[in-house]
Each structure stands twice: as structure tokens, then as C-alpha cells.
Amino acid sequence: LAEPPVRRVGIFGGTHGNELSGVLLVRHWQENGAEIQRPGMEVKPFLTNPRAVEKCTRYVDCDLNRVFDPDSLGRPVVEDIPYEVRRAQEINHIFGPKGSDDAYDLIFDLHNTTSNMGGTLILENSRDDFTIQMVHYIKKALAPGRCPALLIEHPSLKYATTRSVAKHPVGKYEN
To answer: Which pairing describes strands 42-47 and 8-13: parallel, antiparallel, or unpaired?
Structure first.
């Protein structure tokens, strides 16, 4: 069964406010996105956690990359709701709703790490043929050097990450 073409792509930076590579790229592409635009596609660079970026800290109240679970996304918005939970709900509204046909097709979530792992792609589903083929393409065509792919099929993380809003989530880590 053929899948519909990928038409909407989100590029996230700043999920963790102290990981500046993605922040700088997103800001660059927000000012001049010509290099990421493609005919027939919408590519949206997006700063995910602006308050944490402003403070240059991982997060303000809680890790944004852990609150895209159903409980957090469905939580009533009250005055004392953690900032990142409220932000997750906003991101889900813009790029989702998660699990729906209206969700963005693909989200690249750009991170930094202090681990000596080089550029690494993170996948969350070994049965997502599109993502596997895309990672294969990236590894062969765009990153002929060392570019490991890490599969994380952990039930609690798989559905709670920022990128999990999309039909095809991919994380990119760089040290």
C-alpha cells in the first residue's frame, strides 16, 4: 500500500534550550529559508522552547522532550501548568494533532550532545518504511562519513518526544 507523499516538514531546534546548533539553524532558516524550501512542500523551521533558549538552560519547568504523552497533551490549561506542558500543547496544535491525518508528515528534531557520537540519527519505529529509507538516503548521499542511526523503540519515550507529533519522527544529534 503506497503512502501519501511527504508534503509538510517541521525542523525543530531548541527543544533543549542549551543545545544551540539547532537553535542557530532554525533562526537562520527563519530569516532565509530558501535553502530548505522545495517545490510542492511546506518546510517550517520552528524554535520549540524559546523560554529555555532565552535562559540557555535545558528546560524551564520540565523536559519538553518527555511531555508529548496523552496525559500531558490532554491536561487542562490552568495557571500553574508547567511551561513545557503548555508549550507541548501549542506544538501539538500547530504540527498535529498527534496521531491524526492532519499531523505534519515529518519532523526533524535537532539536538546537541556531549557524547562522542558524532552526527547520529534517531529513529523511533523499526516498521516505518519511509523513515528507514530516508535515513538510508541520508547516510549514503548526504553524509558519506560516519553517521550512525540509533533505533529507540522504548514504549515510554517513543510517544513522549517532541518529534513524535509527526507521522515520521526523526531526531538528529550532533556533538
So the answer is: parallel
Task: Give CA separation, 57 vs 17, 25, 43, 116, 119, in Å.
Answer: 5, 18, 27, 21, 22
The pLDDT tens digits of the residues spanning 24-50 come to 999 999 999 999 999 999 999 999 999
pTM score over 0.85 = yes
Instruction: Decide if 124 contacts 169 (C-beta within 8 A).
Output: yes
**Residue found under cell 546548533:** 21
Q: Give the Cα-Cα-Cα angle 51, 54, 58 (nearest 5 degrees).
A: 70
Output the nine-digit C-alpha cell for 119: 552526527
- The answer to whether 16 and 52 are in contact (CB under 8 A) is yes
Nearest CA-CA partner of 105 in 158, 171, 170: 170
Q: What's the CATH architecture for 8-173?
A: 3-Layer(aba) Sandwich (3.40)
